[in-house]
Amino acid sequence: MMSASHLEFTEHPHRRHNPLTNRSVLVSPHRAQRPWQGQVEPAAEEQKPTYDPKCYLCPGNSRAGGKQNPKYDETFVFTNDFAALLPDTPSFEQQDGADQDLLKVEGVKGTCKVICFSPRHDWTVAEMSVDSLIGVVRTWTEQHRLLAETDYIHHVQIFENKGQAMGCSNPHPHCQIWATEFVPTEPAVEFENMKSYMQRKRSNMLLDYLAIELKAQERIVCENNHFVALVPFWAEWPFETLVLPRTHCRSLQDLDSNQQEGLADIYRRVTCRYDNLFCCSFPYSMGLRQPPTDGKDSYEYCQFNMRFYPPLLRSATVRKFMVGFEMLGEPQRDITPEQAAERLRQCPEIHYKHKN
């Protein structure tokens, strides 16, 4: 633990800086003992069938507009029927005027895709095999390559929302890809800070950070030969995790077959530990961070990573809300990242549903 005069990280309020975003998070460990009388989430889990004839993601079923899914047996990719972005949006040039500095607008092009992970309606990533998840990683890689080769696509965001608490409208295991002609705000900030760090230090920010974490060990959750999962020092969500490659990799395109298997393995292990933490289907938003595809830079300062943002705080029924001070001031957390990592380390990697 970092030394500080009269400051105990497990007892006293303190702020932690996130070098990726150049923002801070307020940590208030003494609040973890406060009684909870607020909203609780339903604890009982619905028993899902292996195939749901009403699910628009299951094999052979119809989707919006009468489109029909093939009877797929591995991964299945299609363009989102309700896409947030369209490839044929007309260009828009804002006219000169006195209000142009305050009322700016631009038309944007893009496309949105859905990737079904498995034909099994009842599975989640935590319950899938590593072999099945290797197929998911390879599908990510192929879709990223195809979209990166599209002239107007400058950024490809792959993400998974799991659970109703994260706004997921369908429990069938799947993720989304939003590919845009612009670089979204959050990654743009991170890329700029990575670039600035390399210019100052002549080294890669996240590789340097990983070296610190591997030496300290207190925030490591699990690891394999190619990836390390940890609760970042600056984590905002209670059980947030960051998955980092051990070597320099900018994007999925840099991963060889062994690293693809390593990513699939760590994906399953992290999500399995999540489910086992409160013996529930643990909700989260997962995202892959990869550099722009605009060809304007080599992006050597970027480091591929996977991050999980889960909302649950104390149990399967109590979640963290980012409201009030978090919306108006800065993010705040109660349980420390070190305590969160310790709890996740103690979780087994055999899914609670499969224990004898």
From TrEMBL:
<dbReference type="Pfam" id="PF01087">
    <property type="entry name" value="GalP_UDP_transf"/>
</dbReference>
<feature type="binding site">
    <location>
        <position position="55"/>
    </location>
    <ligand>
        <name>Zn(2+)</name>
    </ligand>
</feature>
<dbReference type="InterPro" id="IPR019779">
    <property type="entry name" value="GalP_UDPtransf1_His-AS"/>
</dbReference>
<feature type="region of interest" description="Disordered">
    <location>
        <begin position="1"/>
        <end position="21"/>
    </location>
</feature>
<feature type="binding site">
    <location>
        <position position="172"/>
    </location>
    <ligand>
        <name>Zn(2+)</name>
    </ligand>
</feature>
<feature type="binding site" description="in other chain">
    <location>
        <begin position="167"/>
        <end position="169"/>
    </location>
    <ligand>
        <name>UDP-alpha-D-glucose</name>
    </ligand>
</feature>
<comment type="similarity">
    <text>Belongs to the galactose-1-phosphate uridylyltransferase type 1 family.</text>
</comment>
<feature type="binding site" description="in other chain">
    <location>
        <position position="161"/>
    </location>
    <ligand>
        <name>UDP-alpha-D-glucose</name>
    </ligand>
</feature>
<dbReference type="InterPro" id="IPR001937">
    <property type="entry name" value="GalP_UDPtransf1"/>
</dbReference>
<feature type="binding site" description="in other chain">
    <location>
        <begin position="80"/>
        <end position="81"/>
    </location>
    <ligand>
        <name>UDP-alpha-D-glucose</name>
    </ligand>
</feature>
<feature type="region of interest" description="Disordered">
    <location>
        <begin position="29"/>
        <end position="48"/>
    </location>
</feature>
<protein>
    <recommendedName>
        <fullName>Galactose-1-phosphate uridylyltransferase</fullName>
        <ecNumber>2.7.7.12</ecNumber>
    </recommendedName>
</protein>
<dbReference type="GO" id="GO:0008270">
    <property type="term" value="F:zinc ion binding"/>
</dbReference>
<keyword id="KW-0299">Galactose metabolism</keyword>
<feature type="binding site">
    <location>
        <begin position="325"/>
        <end position="326"/>
    </location>
    <ligand>
        <name>UDP-alpha-D-glucose</name>
    </ligand>
</feature>
<feature type="binding site">
    <location>
        <begin position="31"/>
        <end position="34"/>
    </location>
    <ligand>
        <name>UDP-alpha-D-glucose</name>
    </ligand>
</feature>
<feature type="binding site" description="in other chain">
    <location>
        <position position="176"/>
    </location>
    <ligand>
        <name>UDP-alpha-D-glucose</name>
    </ligand>
</feature>
<dbReference type="GO" id="GO:0008108">
    <property type="term" value="F:UDP-glucose:hexose-1-phosphate uridylyltransferase activity"/>
</dbReference>
<keyword id="KW-0548">Nucleotidyltransferase</keyword>
<feature type="active site" description="Tele-UMP-histidine intermediate">
    <location>
        <position position="174"/>
    </location>
</feature>
<dbReference type="InterPro" id="IPR005849">
    <property type="entry name" value="GalP_Utransf_N"/>
</dbReference>
<feature type="binding site" description="in other chain">
    <location>
        <position position="64"/>
    </location>
    <ligand>
        <name>UDP-alpha-D-glucose</name>
    </ligand>
</feature>
<feature type="binding site" description="in other chain">
    <location>
        <position position="332"/>
    </location>
    <ligand>
        <name>UDP-alpha-D-glucose</name>
    </ligand>
</feature>
<keyword id="KW-0479">Metal-binding</keyword>
<feature type="binding site">
    <location>
        <position position="121"/>
    </location>
    <ligand>
        <name>Zn(2+)</name>
    </ligand>
</feature>
<feature type="binding site">
    <location>
        <begin position="320"/>
        <end position="321"/>
    </location>
    <ligand>
        <name>UDP-alpha-D-glucose</name>
    </ligand>
</feature>
<dbReference type="InterPro" id="IPR036265">
    <property type="entry name" value="HIT-like_sf"/>
</dbReference>
<keyword id="KW-0808">Transferase</keyword>
<comment type="pathway">
    <text>Carbohydrate metabolism; galactose metabolism.</text>
</comment>
<dbReference type="GO" id="GO:0033499">
    <property type="term" value="P:galactose catabolic process via UDP-galactose, Leloir pathway"/>
</dbReference>
<keyword id="KW-0862">Zinc</keyword>
<feature type="domain" description="Galactose-1-phosphate uridyl transferase N-terminal">
    <location>
        <begin position="7"/>
        <end position="184"/>
    </location>
</feature>
<dbReference type="InterPro" id="IPR005850">
    <property type="entry name" value="GalP_Utransf_C"/>
</dbReference>
<feature type="binding site">
    <location>
        <position position="58"/>
    </location>
    <ligand>
        <name>Zn(2+)</name>
    </ligand>
</feature>
<dbReference type="GO" id="GO:0005737">
    <property type="term" value="C:cytoplasm"/>
</dbReference>
<dbReference type="Pfam" id="PF02744">
    <property type="entry name" value="GalP_UDP_tr_C"/>
</dbReference>
<feature type="domain" description="Galactose-1-phosphate uridyl transferase C-terminal">
    <location>
        <begin position="191"/>
        <end position="355"/>
    </location>
</feature>
<keyword id="KW-0119">Carbohydrate metabolism</keyword>
